[in-house]
Design a protein that fits this description.
The structure is a homodimer of 205-residue chains.
Chain A: H1 15-35, H2 38-44, H3 49-55, H4 59-80, H5 86-97, H6 104-118, H7 124-150, H8 159-179, H9 185-199
Helix pairs in contact in A: 1-2, 1-4, 1-6, 4-7, 5-7, 6-8, 7-8
């Protein structure tokens, strides 16, 4: 499922867990979170259904693992990407997340992920996983900023604080895309650039 | 339900709609979105249950009106607040939303609202209402920035773009509070201040 914009909506299934996760994605896509049953997922799973029931203790247990899987896939992708420097990496991430419009599969995925994340508001197992996902993104942004500071291309900021700002912006943008028809990505991206120019990039004083 | 921090978790019920909305809030608080039934709301409603079934076409119809009601309450509050100038108003809103910690009722309310907003990812009626809520917040921030530009205390920015940035930050912060245990509010507030100092406030060049 590679789109024109190069964004993979869902990775190729590998191994039993990968196949379960692909079945989960497809079932979520068709039924949405609220109506989803383990049977819907089993219906999309090519192997023995008992395998699925053996591994997971119900729908939410499976969906929390799905969130974990999506994070692992993201991290695998992020590690294999190569960028000339910290600024190019930051800009590439922002280009992707603040793209003026998303492809249909990315729209769908953004909405599904928002629905799953929201379960964390009332369910501790989701909350732990979403907190973990948030931490990993925070670490990635912190690492990017710290590298730019170390090589002198970024100002001497606290990488942790700038990472927290970028992550909050990214989460806000994803949430607004998932739950509203507002068109804001271009405007916000320009303001994010203004923030980074004033705060982070050394050659734009 | 006024807290130490002066934040009202839920307004005093006025009139039949107000009482229905108070019953909805209480039922949501007790049961969460997924398990909630119209009967749960009826159980919290002091008047005739038939009134409730007469006015609303099921749980989601009622909850979409609940979102609309929360917006009206917010707007009524915002209109009655008085600030010396645009900057004081912007800072007051940010102080409230980026407070290092929320009172228990505000934590609860933030989580409930996040769960309801997330329904907009898959339901058109929620999506229309959440989009409307988003627009009103956007208008309020645009109005604040435009006043500051007009009286010369803010730089000559596009109020619409700065409002979009602030709203995305606010939504990201509320979403992260609702779905994670991350502690980021203080850090992000400091970065928001750095953004506003560089981009908006004229006396901080």
């Amino acid at each position: 499922m590679v789109e024109d914009d190069g964004v993979v909506a869902f990775p190729e299934a590998e191994g039993t867990r990968g196949e379960i996760m692909a079945a989960t994605y497809e079932a979520l896509r068709q039924h949405g979170y609220a109506a989803l049953t383990v049977q819907d997922i089993a219906d999309e799973f090519p192997k023995s259904k008992s395998l699925l029931y053996h591994h997971y203790d119900g729908k939410d247990d499976l969906l929390v693992d799905f969130l974990s899987y999506m994070l692992e896939q993201y991290e695998g992708q992020a590690e294999s990407d190569r960028y000339p420097d910290a600024r190019a990496e930051l800009e590439a991430v922002l280009d992707r997340l603040f793209a003026p419009s998303f492809s249909e599969p990315m729209v769908e995925r953004t909405r599904l992920m928002a629905e799953l994340r929201a379960q964390a508001a009332s369910d501790e197992a989701y909350r732990e996983q979403v907190t973990r996902t948030d931490e990993r993104f925070h670490e990635r942004f912190t690492d990017i900023v710290a590298r730019g500071v170390a090589d002198g291309s970024f100002r001497d900021v606290d990488p942790d604080a700038v990472a927290a700002m970028v992550l909050t912006l990214v989460n806000g943008a994803m949430e607004r895309r998932a739950t509203t028809d507002a068109e804001f990505a271009g405007q916000v991206r320009a303001e994010v650039d203004a923030y980074l120019a004033a705060r982070l990039y050394r050659d734009e004083v």
